[in-house]
């Protein structure tokens, strides 16, 4: 299947079945195992396919745990059992990176907490130089304004931790996550531009579409440039997924999405701030995404260090 065909299939599914479960989404489309080796029941695809699906998930504001399961967990572990369950769609998994938790490992016992974690069933943590899997003693879901990105607080009280394989180093997992998140941000930003452009064509003032007014035309033209530049940053990183390329994508796409979501509300005017319209949902997602793996300035700081 080509990338364009994959995009069409995923977009059509998410539009037709917005409330479909992860098991159905991953089972019918096979997206959970895109990056899993064929030996473990996956498709053996690469970052290009992951980016396409991530972009469509961002466009649809899907709450599916694709980022943490299909991107991060499949890169972090090489455990056949875990990968097989993920590829089958029978298990969701999340990865907690160093700096995102206060856990310590004493032998095979894990104690501590991870305050903000992408929600999933299995929990993998980088701790003490190793990747381990452990069952939290407690899970407390957050009541966040952005309901499309479920977060939970985890605590461990002497939980049994077992080795979860020797997959990618945590820096590599972080970079892949940043690139996939940037693709999601591009999808959301493109949807904001699409919605704002459609509204500018339909909304009339003084007897003509507001899209014919110079101020609106300039805003939308500038936004088109921002969105396409963000898309270029993502696909540049997909083609060369280095730490530098990931930092560039993370830096630019987070701010691009915030601008697109904000400008979309401005173009929509009064209706754009109503609870019934979708514009506020994209603004919330853009705001939460911009903090997920560090704000844009943190990615720029990594560039300066490099």
Stated plainly, the CATH topology of the largest domain is called Butyryl-Coa Dehydrogenase, subunit A, domain 1
SSE string, helices as H and strands as E: HHHHHEEEEEEEHEEHHHH
Q: Any idea what the CATH superfamily of the largest domain is called?
A: Acyl-CoA dehydrogenase/oxidase, N-terminal domain
The N- and C-terminal alpha carbons lie at a distance of 37 Å
The shape, in one word, is globular
Largest sheet: 7 strands, mixed
Which structural category fits the helices and strands?
alpha+beta
Approximate helicity band: 40-55%
Radius of gyration using CA atoms only: 20 Å
| DSSP helical segment count | 10
| CATH architecture descriptor name of the largest domain | Orthogonal Bundle
Mean pLDDT, rounded to whole units?
Answer: 95
Beta-strand segment tally: 9
Low-confidence stretches: none
Q: State which percent range the strand residues make up.
A: 15-25%
Number of domains: 2
Q: In the CATH hierarchy, what is the class of the largest domain?
A: Mainly Alpha
Describe the structure.
The protein is α+β, with helices and mostly antiparallel strands and 306 residues long. It folds into 2 domains: 3-163, Orthogonal Bundle (Butyryl-Coa Dehydrogenase, subunit A, domain 1), CATH 1.10.540.10; 170-305, Butyryl-CoA Dehydrogenase, subunit A, domain 3 (Up-down Bundle). Helices cover 54% and strands 16% of the residues. It has 10 helices and 9 strands. It has helices spanning 3-16, 22-29, 47-60, 66-76, 80-88, 170-202, 214-239, 243-268, 279-292, 296-305, and strands spanning 93-96, 104-106, 109-118, 122-127, 130-134, 138-141, 151-163, 204-205, 208-209. Strands 1, 2, 3, 4, 5, 6 and 7 form a 7-stranded mixed sheet that branches. Strands 8-9 form a two-stranded antiparallel ribbon. Strand 8 (204-205) and strand 9 form a beta hairpin. Helix 4 runs antiparallel to helix 6 and helix 6 runs parallel beside helix 8. The longest helix is centred in the middle third of the chain and has 33 residues, at 170-202. The chain is globular, with a radius of gyration of 20 Å. Its cofactor is FAD. Residues 179-295 form the Acyl-CoA dehydrogenase/oxidase C-terminal domain. It comes from Nonomuraea roseola. InterPro entries: AcylCo_DH-like_C, AcylCo_DH/oxidase_C, AcylCoA_DH/ox_N, AcylCoA_DH/ox_N_sf, AcylCoA_DH/oxidase_NM_dom_sf. Belongs to the acyl-CoA dehydrogenase family.
